[in-house]
Protein 1
Amino acid sequence: MASKTSPSLLLLLCFSFLAFLIPCNCCCKEPEKDDGAKVKGMFVFGSSLVDNGNNNFIQNILAKADYLPYGVDFPRGPSGRFTNGKNVIDLLGDQLKLPSYIPPFLDPSTKGNKIVNGVNYASGASGILDDTGSLAGNVISLNQQIREFEEVTLPDLEKQLGCNSRDSLPHYLFVVGSGGNDYSLNYFLTRSMTNVTLEDFTVNLTNILSLQLKKLYSLGARKFVLMSINPSGCSPMVRARQPEQKGCVEEQNKAALLYNAHLTSLVDLIKPQMPASILVFVNTNKMIMDIIANPASKGFNDTNNACCEVDDGTGTLCRRGGSTCATRSTHLYFDGLHPTEAVNVQIAAKAYASNLTSEVYPINVKQLSLI
């Protein structure tokens, strides 16, 4: 008499076979840290304020910081960071207790297990618009940075983590620090030829940024940190170019404030179009203006001058091998545009833990990391 297999046993065998065929995504569920944080790492996009060395690997580009005195206070020396020590991304990583520095994408060694805590794609002099920074050479635009993330990093990340990126990416922060160069290296250089108003330019700029954020969202990103643009009108570079004006150049600062207002609004407007996403706006502009308004209370005594000897050709970058001020920790600016590590320390601390919505909106990065 032939033996009969029960229907329940057949069903169990079918499920077992399917389970064998379908890879398990549970490996993406990283164990929480002791402080409850659920962030595994950061993917960073933007310009020189967050660039940690990508421009070192680009030929024919003027915006480089791979020489002394850049990195004079950084453990590894000159690294391509546009400051004397750590930039805000390094310090935010410290706050999040990430195990190492986020590696630059263009470093040939940035692959395999080196990418599991994130990758930095930022390129000094680049912008949200593709043509921003072209005068500086072969900069990597924000669109190109996102393409590199999608086409190169994501397949490698899936291989390293053994699961679909849509399951792993919610465990990462996506930091975007771009926009300033779209004014200084684009709008203010071309407005006489285009006749575009500042308001129209800013609306177009933030509309393009919203599309770029949606692209990252479509790839699986869920936690975003959006950095404001700084008050460039107060920088030594801009002030030196318009010496007839006393104090900060208000036209430049007006552009920054307008962009930042649109970016703050975007945080609320785009969220319904990106379900389950969380966007945090970090108002670095206000933090720097607070230092300028009352430097002594923040630990600074020079908010006007570059700490390093600035190259006369651009008024922006440090002279190669040039001298620096003795008290870098009390200077606001290291070169003609970029803040010192001391400023970055304060920005990162406030971004992570401030309870003021005028500084971080609607929540801070620590709260974001716990979600």
Protein 2
Amino acid sequence: MNTAHHMLLYGCGEPGTAKSTWNCGEMAQNSEEEQASPCGPHSHSQILYAWARDAPRLGLPPGVGFKVGKDSPTKYLVLQVHYAHVQKFQDGTTDDSGVFIEYTEKPLKKLAGTLLLGTGGSIPAMATEHMETACEISENKVLHPFAYRVHTHGLGKVVSGYRVRSNDRGVQEWTQLGKRDPLTPQMFYNVTNAEPIESGDHVAVRCTMKSNRHRVTEVGPTNEHEMCNFYLMYYVDHGETLDMKYCFSQGAPNYYWSNPDTGLHNIPHIEASTL
């Protein structure tokens, strides 16, 4: 983590450029280099894996794998590496940060997917704020969650994720998928509850942020900004993974779980905000 701040492994239909390495923007607003996104502008794009804070390796459950290559929308793997500091490279020193991938040519029946939940928004000066997002699973698929990962920058205190389902009486039950202090190693952890997620359920995430800054902090890519991300890794027993790869909201101060149009109620406010 003293070299690479974090890394993201994208699955792309087409890469952002034909070059073998390139500046993928975000961190380099002042750069004069040509920039391109990790995946092409009209290409399939999903995040397969993410790493930060000296996280150990991730092993998938037996018989579970990500489908890539032939008959898959993922034709390319693109590794995006974010560096917090570049001073150590200015004398020509190189870096070999990366990801080791195990693969098989034997098709696996259990296909893995990653759903990234996150927010936009801002955090007021000298305040505690909740950054929240939620999406309904509308596709007729049964998801078996098995791992989750949280990510914020320095202001994050707690990140929690839930499956939300209405019972026979119409009361929403919030089942925790995972909850972490985001400043611990940002690896994939086993989910708290591996019960299936089905069509009609919601997935919901809250990041509790506490700012001691005398300025507003916007969501953005650098350490001067903030992020609220929750990666949910799951598999399906048959068929394809979700078409929905991302679930983002506007975030505070425009979006909260308690807004009337979210359809969410019975919210576990204290549990979702404390470790």
